[in-house]
Design a protein that fits this description.
This protein is an all-alpha fold and 220 residues long. The protein has helices spanning 2-9, 107-118, 130-133, 153-159, 166-175, 188-206. Helix 2 (107-118) crosses helix 6 and helix 5 crosses helix 6.
Length: 220
């Protein structure tokens, strides 16, 4: 009876009245913290692993490994149309035939035509003109201040020719940076370009400040 009285006095002792004795104990239920975590889905709690993470590249957890908008093709890192490299050139395509002279005629007309051809991209197969590498007459190696013929490192490297005159330099540029065929040796275009190159060279020889940095880094 004492025990019965004790139970009667203790409302929690009755199974039906004791909230702690209920079958469905809120403390004994599946841990709501252990339930499927919406953040655990594809580890979206990690901002670097989110499905639509602008930082997400192949390594989704490393924001630095994502696609870098600054890593797009760098126009400065592309193949330099004005630089050396490529297959060796046949020196016979560069060397002026013995006894053959270029030029002659109206020098002013040759100069005007040469200046126009200097900017003419149609001479090349790749959209490059002489002015691409030598904007405003700049972009030559220091050796350009020397009268022709003189040694040009890129010509020497790619063809073995020790020294070139202005016409031979034009022919080299036609073959290498401009990726085209050399001009006929008796061509008016070659005569005009040669005359213009010689004219520009004289300006460089008298003006050391004309040796400006060339974005194409041509080694002419």
């Amino acid at each position: 009876p004492a025990a019965a009285d004790h139970h009667e006095m203790n409302p929690c002792a009755a199974k039906s009245l004791n909230p702690c004795a209920k079958k469905a104990n809120p403390c004994g239920m599946k841990n709501p913290c252990a339930a499927k975590n919406p953040c655990a889905k594809k580890n979206v709690c990690n901002p670097c692993a989110a499905k639509k993470n602008p930082c997400a590249g192949k390594n989704a957890c490393n924001p630095c490994a994502g696609k870098n908008p600054c890593g797009a093709k760098n126009p400065c890192a592309g193949k330099n149309p004005c630089g050396g490299g490529g297959a060796a050139l046949n020196p016979c395509q560069i060397k002026q035939p013995a006894g053959l002279k270029t030029g002659g005629g109206d020098q002013a007309a040759l100069l005007a035509q040469g200046e126009a051809l200097w900017k003419d991209t149609s001479l090349s197969s790749n959209g490059v003109a002489c002015a691409t590498c030598h904007s405003n007459g700049a972009g030559f190696m220091p050796s350009f201040a020397k009268p022709y013929p003189h040694q040009v490192a890129m010509v020497k490297q790619m063809s073995g020719v020790d020294a070139v005159n202005a016409a031979e330099m034009v022919q080299f540029c036609m073959l290498q940076p401009m990726q085209a065929e050399p001009l006929p040796w008796n061509s008016p275009k070659l005569a005009a370009l040669t005359h213009y190159v010689e004219h520009v060279q004289q300006g460089h020889a008298t003006n050391p400040c004309a040796m400006k940095a060339n974005p194409c880094a041509g080694k002419h």
